[in-house]
């Protein structure tokens, strides 16, 4: 009897340990949702980047860059990059809600900044991709923050805005995964952890400096760029930050 009892106790302990040690795997749906939210945000940010010369043209008062135009161009760019258009009718009810909230956030942020965008006699407006993305993410959280959150963050030594400072989970992933030579370039990291006291699927997608980023983030390190921040001294291909996605379960 003692031997049977010991064996049973060992089996129970082993099962309990296995249950604790093996996290719940993300569903294909969660991965697809996270990747789509990041891709749409990137597309919107790229549209703002592509229109910087127009936005900062002090000789033009009417830029003809309303929120709907930015949204339309972002979805077109998304389709080019992904090889397929984004059809809301093919999304689940939850994904459609998140998509509509993200698109509405983009449209609203651009429309609310029309006076700045159209300001005549002012060159650099400060309405840059990073600011646009942060404002969109904040508006997205206002709309559906109990369901999902998006954020652009970066390693603590190069993050510029305190609102973008990585939380403990993001910092750990950046430092122990993305900043190591062993990590596969571009590979996202995901896990199931608690956030704000709620179980959540969390995903971090690395981003790297492109040539266009180096105007503000390149050499010489420490030189003040057009936005008023010291340059990070980065090089093309260096880790620039990450898009953080949270889907509450």
TrEMBL record:
The protein, known as: DUF3365 domain-containing protein
Keyword set includes Signal: yes
Signal peptide range: 1-26
Protein's organism: Stappia sediminis
Domain Tll0287-like: residue ranges: 98-246
Classification of source organism: Bacteria, Pseudomonadati, Pseudomonadota, Alphaproteobacteria, Hyphomicrobiales
Pfam families attached to this UniProt entry: Tll0287-like
Keywords: Signal
